Amino acid sequence: MRVEGHDPRGKGPAQSAPGRGAAAGGPDEAAGAVFAALADPTRRQVVRALTERETVTATSLAGELPMSRQAVAKHLALLDEAGLVAGERAGRETRYRLTPGPLSDAMGWMADAGARWDDRLARLQRRLET
After folding, report:
1. Strand 56-57 vs strand 85-90: parallel, antiparallel, or unpaired?
2. Which residue of 47, 61, 89, 94 has the smallest Cβ count within 10 Å?
3. Which DSSP letter does residue 87 get?
4. Per-domain residue ranges of the chain
5. What is the DSSP secondary structure assignment for residue 68, as one 8-state letter?
6. Architecture category of domain 23-129 in CATH
């Protein structure tokens, strides 16, 4: 039996093509992948670091964060899976850049959800006033 988001071999989260797994299920699933990726404070630090420069390597981030290069690489892989970063090989290194599209999509999802709640609350208030 396959559990969504779980590698049946017991090796951690299931992996799909970079940047594609989140969007395959539609806007709700893509927004959920962004929210899940950003739920971790270390990944938020990585995203913040990427907003300050064009590209970054796992090695350079490991020098700034209190963790190993391998740990940083795992965080970058999860951000890549959510579509928030894209990696490009440059010689022996992979340079990562921020891809803000999924953030905009998640913000759009939040705005839409907020608008629906505003509409519901306005209808409730009108009912209570009558």
Report:
1. unpaired
2. 89
3. E
4. 23-129
5. -
6. Orthogonal Bundle (1.10)
